[in-house]
Amino acid sequence: MKYICTFFFLIFVTSCSNSTKSTVTPKDYLDEVFKIVEEHSIKRDSVDFNEIKRNAYSRLKNTDSIENCYPIVKSILKDLDDRHSFFMPKKEVEKWQSTNESYGNNELITFNCKLLNLEIGYIHMKGFSSGDSVSIQQYADILQNQIKSIDNEKIKGWIVDLRENTGGNCWPMLTGLGPLLGNGICGYFIDNNQNKSSWFYQNGESGIDSLTITKVSGQPYKLLNELNPIAVLTGLRTVSSGEVVVTAFHNKSNVRSFGENTGGLSTGNANYKLGDGSMIFLTSSIYVDREGNVFGKQIEPDEIITFSYHEIGQPTDAVINRAMEWINEN
Question: How far from the centroid of its chain's Cα atoms is residue 32's Cα?
Fold first, then answer.
């Protein structure tokens, strides 16, 4: 089983390619979709699959190609009502897996690290929408290197600003932030059968259980002071893999969170490759923090502070100002 995280709103994602046969007919294609969905959907025990199937197969009468099944598959995933599952056509899958050839580094490195008042490390991290191995490697390496470049003995603490993190691939995010997370288990995914899979950061690597998914290419960085306080900032645009990062810091002894509730997509999507090369990204698990707290919906910060998105990073940013105040107090 191969694990990756994906795109747009994604979270953890198990890439489980169940389909190896060549799909011949539209019916075969929908059969393949339902086999996956009925077995793995987090909503499998609470939706009427008979009704969903009836609606889906009734639309096959005027369908003469696999591509014409795509709207039906999207409808199936929408009917699950988990708010997170989605479909990716073959051409989009190919683009997603080769973003390094389509974009420059500046478009994929969606974070910025700097010092505030010469004494607080600030990391502003947006989403990362790539499944390309080269881009993933670059992201993790550059993030750790930027953290290293601003770390010094006078730093009082760190701010991780996730208010504009709309998700994507969580593994390079976790790996890049590894120096702040520290070694060990930082969260879990729990499925329909209450099976837990842990996710970890350990010496430059992140992954699930004992499986490494992403690692830095060189020597991993270790903070000069691992006990410094860390403020995590959240808001409604913090979703999916962004909420993975929130969960990874949740209940860590030196961490406090500020801002507004997250968007509420704290559920894990597993991606399944279909016979024609397209994929469904199916919600099949829920996030659990290091202390066993189960999410699955919005994650509330320790301190609620309302803000406007146009104020992020400005002198009037009340969330950053309160985070800095807390760091100085500690």
Answer: 26
